[in-house]
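A favour, since you know our structure tokens better than I do. Just paste the record in under my message, thanks.
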Amino acid sequence: MNKRQTRIFAIASTAIASLIFLVLTVDSHRQFPTLTNADKITDAVVRGQNVWHRNNCINCHTILGEGAYYAPDLTKITQHRGAPYLTAFLKNPSQFYDEQTHRRLMPNQNLSDQEIEDLIAFMDWVSKVDNQGWPPRPILVTGSSIPGTDLSLAQQRAGGDTATGQPPAARPVTTANDPIALGEALFRSAVPTCAACHSTAPGVNLAGPTLANIASNAEKTLASPDYKGKAKTVEEFIRESIMEPSAYLHPGPMYSANGVSFMPTTYGKDLTPEQIDQLVAYLASFK
């Protein structure tokens, strides 16, 4: 091309690119009310946003991909934790995590009950914004350096080899009629996601206690005079814990408040009896 043709090409390309950018921008603004559920922005949501900004939460936390990375991403926090847990946490974070043990310290902002309620309303609105799947995985409120934390079910049960990715004498755990395999899939996909609050690695307590050795721990609980539930067997205890989380409260202030467990009570309604059976089979396999 000669200089004149080159100039025309550059101008035309710039004009076309600018037009496309303008169209996409207008289209994005057209969709914002739907994508952000603008009709769900209540007075409480607005007040909660003010609490978020006033206390500089974004200096440590991230929402919708914006903010700092010192503390967990909170985009979906209300779906992963629930209002009872968040309320207790915001009232006294030191009950849950401390600087000496977890090498982090969530400051107590001394929020009023109304401010906490409004902040949770704001975060709940944020969690329902159509953000194309961000964040890509449930947050973990603590990490683990324990070998095998990220192993599969079979590896965790049988002492797997992280190099080969296979446990000794491994059997397939993806068969459609294998209740343990189906239970593992539910553990990682049910809503709310069980894996967002519970680890299956020994010693790794997240928002909920670790479920490693849950079968043997259940036997000890059933034999304890402190247990007042109705379960008689390990399987019944696990089922009761899923269906009626407050029937037995795991020791520790970070798991319950005022006699009520922070664990959601919706699994009995949202999962079928068969799915509950599969979850029980999976969890009971951790001896």
About this structure: The two ends are 75 Å apart (CA to CA). The beta strands are 62-63, 66-67, 256-257, 260-261. The chain is about 45% helix and 5% strand.
